Amino acid sequence: MPKLKNKSGAKKRFRLTATGKVRMNQAGKRHGMRKRSQKMIRNARGSALLCDADAKVVRRNFLPYAK
Known about the structure:
The chain is an alpha+beta fold. It has one domain: Factor Xa Inhibitor (Irregular). Helix content is 34%, strand content 15%. It has helices at 8-13, 38-43, 52-62; strands at residues 14-16, 22-25, 47-49. The chain has a three-stranded antiparallel sheet with strand order 1-2-3. Strand 1 (14-16) and strand 2 (22-25) form a beta hairpin. The protein is elongated. The two termini are 20 Å apart.
């Protein structure tokens, strides 16, 4: 059976923590900051963890060889 490929878009967007959870960057901070509330801008700082259902999909389909 041939090797599976990682999705190159997923490699750029997600990375795994040491315990195997999937970390992502917060969305919605590329442009259009004037129309967003300060609370939204503050809360979208840094990174967050994907919920378990989405993390399962990312690990299985997009990053099959991620440890």
